[in-house]
């Protein structure tokens, strides 16, 4: 379990990147959602013992962040801007990381690297230098280095950025398998990345936790706030653009999915079931529904 108590972080010349964050993260996949600048990467770097908080504390399986070496040995981390040495081959790079992670036995290291290369679908490129890899291939190498050594906690910062749809699905399945009996903390601003496979989610906005719970809690945030309206171009022009989730052409104008506390002013409007993404957008735009506390 990861226990986070009143963590705050302020960078020099910046507003609070994290503002009194308290969360309990349990075994399984945990999705950390939030818009750009919400504080996701900052929270992850703090939990990986790479940045110190300004105030507050956290423990990872009972070990406080102040025991940084122990924390780092327990955690696999894929940063948002992952870089590997360009002159090494994929295998050489993983071998180097494996040695750093304390896998001393060369045979064991090689065996683990072979399995990982296959899991991230890099086995055919493993002998080539990293400088020749595409962005998606580098990302997959980053995922492999984070999984190396089977850490008890895996922290992956926007891991699917730059992956094609097929690799995205492969990666999601890999993480789900890996999360059995471990904590996998995955940050994203793409709701589809956390659909189905996350047991727990937390939503950050402007450094604060605005929801901690399960996927249904997020979907509930959209209840009574999602509308489908057939609009003329003139009606559409009067809408707040931020309230429109999607539009498609329809007879006599546009069919729009709209988020708002009240239905849009239009003749042809009906309420619709919120999707998970609607719930997320409604939460960011209109806040928690009345009486909701998350868990
Ligand atoms: N090294 C830094 N120095 C100063 N300010 C920083 C630094 N790193 C992050 N910030 C600021 O802290 C806030 C949170 O940034 P952070 O990168 O943690 O957000 P994020 O949710 O990961 O965003 P994104 O989804 O865009 O990656 C932002 O306002 C950002 O500008």
From TrEMBL:
CDD domains named in the record: ABC_drug_resistance_like (cd03264)
GO MF annotation terms: ATP binding; ATP hydrolysis activity
InterPro entries from the UniProt entry: AAA+_ATPase, ABC_transporter-like_ATP-bd, ABC_transporter-like_CS, P-loop_NTPase
SUPFAM superfamilies on file: P-loop containing nucleoside triphosphate hydrolases
Keyword Transmembrane helix: no
Keyword Ubl conjugation assigned: no
Keywords: ATP-binding, Nucleotide-binding, Transport
Domain ABC transporter: 2-231
PANTHER family associated with the record: ABC TRANSPORTER, ATP-BINDING PROTEIN
Record-stated family: Belongs to the ABC transporter superfamily.
Protein name, entry field: ABC transporter ATP-binding protein
Annotated organism of origin: Paenibacillus oralis
């Amino acid at each position: 379990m990861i226990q986070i108590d009143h963590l705050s972080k302020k960078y020099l010349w910046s507003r609070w990147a994290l503002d009194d964050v308290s969360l309990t993260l349990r075994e399984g996949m945990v999705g950390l959602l939030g818009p750009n600048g919400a504080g996701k990467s900052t929270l992850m770097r703090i939990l990986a013992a790479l940045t110190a908080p300004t105030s507050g504390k956290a423990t990872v399986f009972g070990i406080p962040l102040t025991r940084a070496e122990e924390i780092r040995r327990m955690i696999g981390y894929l940063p948002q801007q992952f870089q590997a040495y360009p002159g090494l081959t994929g295998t050489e790079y993983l071998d180097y990381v494996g040695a750093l992670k304390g896998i001393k036995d060369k045979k064991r290291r090689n065996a683990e690297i072979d399995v990982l290369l296959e899991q991230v679908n890099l086995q055919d490129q493993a002998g080539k230098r990293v400088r020749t890899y595409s962005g998606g291939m580098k990302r997959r190498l980053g995922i492999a280095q984070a999984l190396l050594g089977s850490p008890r906690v895996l922290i992956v910062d926007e891991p699917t950025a730059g992956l094609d749809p097929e690799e995205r699905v492969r990666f999601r399945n890999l993480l789900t398998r890996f999360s059995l009996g471990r904590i996998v903390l995955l940050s994203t601003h793409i709701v589809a990345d956390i659909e189905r496979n996350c047991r727990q989610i937390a939503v950050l906005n402007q450094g604060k936790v605005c929801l901690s719970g399960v996927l249904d809690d997020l979907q509930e945030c959209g209840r009574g706030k999602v509308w489908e309206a057939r609009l003329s171009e003139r009606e559409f022009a009067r809408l707040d653009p931020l309230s429109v989730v999607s539009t498609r052409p329809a007879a006599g104008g546009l069919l729009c999915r709209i988020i708002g506390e009240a239905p849009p002013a239009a003749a042809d409007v009906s309420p619709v079931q919120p999707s998970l993404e609607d719930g997320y957008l409604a939460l960011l735009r209109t806040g928690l529904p009345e009486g909701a506390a998350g868990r």
